[in-house]
Design a protein that fits this description.
Layout: E1 2-8, H1 13-23, E2 29-36, H2 42-49, E3 54-56, H3 68-80, E4 85-88, H4 97-102, E5 107-111, H5 123-130, E6 134-141, E7 151-158, H6 165-188, E8 192-195, E9 198-201
Parallel strand pairs: 1-2, 1-4, 2-3, 4-5
Antiparallel strand pairs: 5-6, 6-7, 8-9
This protein binds 5-O-phosphono-beta-D-ribofuranosylamine.
Length: about 200
């Protein structure tokens, strides 16, 4: 069974979905640890309530990145818990290349848009304001770019007439909760093959 580490900053609804999917047997994984850069993250509370080891590790003084020394603490914690796959779930920091190298091809992220459209913050709002008819969510590997790594799963969400950004975001979040666990399961089953920047799913069910 694969051991995953989940990095969070906020509400933790994706974390909760992973926890629930593990409990219900839909995802064959174990959460080794949850780490947050935000002491007050609801996600930390959710992890603790589910009996998952959860830590706040101070990110340092920077706003966008973890300070280099702090990043080593994150890595140490992940290694201590024997994490094999790092899942960013609403983690609001960019990782240095040293971190990426330490978990090369073993860091994934969930983004609330159909990448490569609407990278960065407030992706749902960007899509809504742009007037797209089809929005969605993406699970992808993390590389040096922001929301730029190879795509594992994408799922579309139709924008309705008279939709609001809030309603659309809710429906996107629902889809996020499904595809994140699906992507973790595929990784765990070694069904993801990287060809250039493309991810082929081997023997999909
Ligand atoms: C999600 O929309 C995710 O795609 C984005 O940040 C949000 C985190 O939500 N990266 P939650 O903390 O999992 O509820």
């Amino acid at each position: 069974m694969i051991v995953i580490g989940v990095l969070v900053s906020g509400n933790g609804s994706n974390l909760q979905a992973i926890i629930d999917n593990i409990k219900s047997g839909n995802l064959n994984a174990k959460i080794g640890c949850v780490i947050s850069d935000n002491q007050n993250a609801l996600a930390l509370k959710k992890a603790k309530e589910s009996g998952v080891p959860a830590y706040y590790i101070c990110p340092g003084s920077g706003k966008t990145y973890l300070d280099t020394e702090r990043e080593l603490e994150y890595l140490e914690c992940l290694r201590k818990h024997k994490v094999k796959l790092v899942c960013l779930a609403g983690f609001m920091r960019i990782l240095h290349s040293e971190f990426l190298q330490a978990f090369k091809d073993r860091i994934i992220n969930i983004h609330p848009a159909l990448l490569p459209s609407f990278q960065g913050l407030h992706a749902q709002r960007q899509a809504f304001d742009y007037g797209v008819k089809i929005a969605g969510a993406t699970v992808h590997f993390v590389d040096e770019g922001v929301d730029a790594g190879p795509i594992i799963i994408q799922r579309a969400v139709t924008v309705k007439d008279n939709d609001t950004e809030e309603e659309l975001s809710k429906r996107i979040l629902k889809v996020e909760h499904q595809i994140y666990s699906e992507a973790i399961q595929l990784f765990a089953e070694k069904k993801l093959k990287k060809i250039g920047r493309k991810i082929e799913i081997i023997n999909p069910d």
